[in-house]
Design goal:
about 0% strand, about 65% helix, about 180 residues, SCAF, coiled coil, Phage scaffolding protein, mainly alpha
């Protein structure tokens, strides 16, 4: 509605001013929701553009291939976890059996059969007992004859030598060669 149209109808100026004020208030009241909706449309348009740009990064990606890779990685991680648990159990059992060298003792065991065993703890114990009886040298045994090691070398087997717990053989030989020299 325009002022000229109201004047053409023959209305008084005061009446026209009041009508124009009421009409302006109605127009402004109607503009507020339109402005809010326009701002919402602009926000949603920006979000849609951001989402569209983000989806472009995934163009050409084979989702099934990614699922297969994830599945493979999960199974690899499970296998590593089981291998670590087995190695820890075996190394602990070797240490408990007073093994002198874990790596050497592991080489004497049938590791593959132990890995696939249903009762690993019992089978490890049995193999370690068998290995200990066959290879006593590899374990910290108190029985010197079983280990095959001499308890003390005195040098007596090579002629004149000392005994364990007495003076050093080098010092004794030096003293015999130099009787007048005192060593403190």
């Amino acid at each position: 509605m325009k002022r000229e149209e109201l004047e053409a109808m023959g209305l008084a100026k005061d009446a026209i001013d009041k009508i124009m004020d009421l009409n302006g208030a109605d127009i402004n009241a109607a503009k507020a929701p339109v402005n809010q909706l326009q701002a919402q449309v602009e926000t949603l348009t920006g979000q849609l553009q951001t989402a569209t740009d983000g989806l472009k990064a995934f163009e050409g990606v084979d989702v099934n291939s990614l699922k297969e890779q994830i599945s493979k990685l999960q199974s690899d991680m499970q296998a590593q976890k089981e291998a670590f648990a087995f190695d820890s159990m075996l190394d602990g059992a070797i240490r408990d059996a007073k093994g002198r060298n874990v790596k050497a003792i592991r080489s004497l065991l049938d590791i593959e059969s132990l890995k696939t065993s249903k009762n690993q703890a019992e089978d490890i114990k049995a193999q370690l007992e068998r290995c200990q009886s066959e290879n006593g040298w590899a374990f910290g045994s108190d029985d010197a004859a079983n280990s095959g090691l001499q308890t003390a070398a005195t040098g007596a087997e090579h002629g004149t030598g000392g005994t364990v717990g007495t003076e050093d053989g080098v010092e004794a030989a030096f003293a015999r060669l130099n009787p007048n020299l005192k060593i403190d």
